[in-house]
Amino acid sequence: MKLSNLLTHIPFYTCHPSFTDVDIQGITMDSRNVKEGDLFVCIKGFTVDGHDYAHAAVERGATVIVSERPLHIDGVIVVVVPDTNKALAIFATVFYDHPSTKFSLVGITGTNGKTTTTYLIEEICKRHGQKTGVIGTIQMKIGDEVFPIVNTTPDALTLQRNFAKMADAEVDTTVMEVSSHALDLGRVYGTDFHIALFTNLSQDHLDYHKDMEDYLRAKTLLFTSLGNDYTKKRFAVVNNDDPHSSLLKKSTSKPVVTYGLKTTADVQAKDVQTELTSTSFLLKTPVGEINITSKLLGTFNVYNMLAAASVALLLRIPLATIKEALEDMDGVPGRFERVEAGQDFAVIVDYAHTPDSLENVLQTIKKFATKNVYVVVGSGGDRDRSKRPLMAKVALTYSDYAIFTSDNPRTEDPLAILNDMTEGLTETTYEVIENRKEAIERAVQLAKSGDVILIAGKGHETYQEINGVRYDFDDRLVAKDVIIEKGKK
Q1: Which fold has domain 3-95?
Q2: 122-159 pLDDT, tens per residue?
Q3: CB-CB neighbours of 353 under 10 Å
Q4: According to the model, what pLDDT value does residue 204 have?
Q5: In angstroms, rounded to a whole number, what is the distance separating the alpha carbons of residues 170 and 131?
Q6: Are 377 and 395 spatial neighbours (Cβ–Cβ below 8 Å)?
Q7: CATH class (in words) of the domain with range 99-328
Q8: CA distance 427 to 449
Q9: Helix or strand holding residue 304 (H, E)
């Protein structure tokens, strides 16, 4: 693609030296990935500044540098723009020929439930005969092909490149998680969402957002991105039971479909019954009613199923197909996932890492637990410190005994994190074991027949991050090994 084709989408810029049109072979923001003829965009990150790597990019063959300030580099065109983040998104979208317009794209934002809802929608679409794409916390998928992923929502360049792969693979519907960071940092600029879904909002990410109001503001950006014209069919789906729902509804000019359990909504669950192995309810929709009996447990999963059903109805998928998918779905990795190794007590691994999500999971467990409930939980380092004591309080409120341990301490001292969690506690039904493996071992040692252990916080993750290094650690595998070892004694 010609450089001039990209620059037509930027209103004002300067070139050093004067403009010369050249062919652009590719776009990159990582100097290590530059190939001959590439355009390199200088991005200011949290820890590094791409402007410092412009010379390295040229040495590797970049012919155009896009920056926010003049750079004096011989033999290369330097294009200076006011905002390289926005320029990157625009250039990537144009270079890959607006790929998100070539399939139905569902964007899901909210504090909890994004991953499970994503996979529920994927399953419904597949049952309807569609080829699907998924981008989220666990992985990226194109059809049945799986790719690793670093961020819940990738940067704008990676995102558009992956959308192009999905378009080339003739995907019908893509479902993606959209984090508040991604919305605030402009990672989804240039992305054409067909449906925007809001699940809920509770305390999280206050290490990044200055307060809950700022966190909510970021969430509304997904809904404003649906646009302001009616030439394209675009829809918003909102959890009507969430106290922030009214602002989300006001944030879009598009038709809004609501779902809920407590309030009047377009899509509702009635007569909810939760048992040890299933959840059943009557799904009421504008196109009819149908009974659902799902293997997914808990009220929070009813909300996830309502959200998925609402999106599916907007995709014109029949109720019978929705029922079939919801009833056959076994679950999502690391979300209320049972660990079975022949033991006579239950062990559940869940990604719950916010006070609200931990409370939801423990409340669900309390509904079917007949004996003691143990919880193993920590709190992540370099993240919102204010939620640490809240996590501890929830754990003590809804369990019989809590073991506080290390999560992903990252660059923080694990004991300092644990002190934040336990400071001021008057309860005695807990202990602190910094080593996560030893904490899981302790819970398994304590458990007797009929008890339930919840190992919370890391879910599907297969690592523990300590001082910038990721060590192999999977709660599910560790728990299984410990259970087997207990059985030998």
Answers
A1: 3.40.1390
A2: 999 999 999 999 999 888 999 999 998 877 678 999 99
A3: 23
A4: 59
A5: 7
A6: yes
A7: alpha beta
A8: 25
A9: helix 299-314
Residue spans in the chain of domains classed CATH 3.90.190.20:
337-488
CA dist 169 → 96, 102, 132, 143, 163 (Å)? 14, 11, 10, 8, 10
- CATH 3.40.1390.10 occupies which residues in the chain? 3-95
- For the chain, what percentages of helix, strand and coil (3-state, to nearest 5) are there? 35, 25, 40
Tokens 């919840």 correspond to: 454
Distance CA 18, CA 6 (A): 16
| Residues 6+ positions from 288 with CB-CB distance below 8 Å | 319
Question: pLDDT tens, 222-238?
Answer: 999 999 889 989 999 99
Q: Which CATH architecture has domain 337-488?
A: Alpha-Beta Complex (3.90)
Question: How close are the terminal C-alpha atoms of the chain, in Å?
Answer: 67
Residues of each domain in the chain carrying CATH 3.40.1190.10: 99-328
Would you state the structure tokens that stand for residue 68, as one six-digit string? Answer: 């926010």
Place of tokens 């054409």: 192
Residue 195 token pair: 């449906």
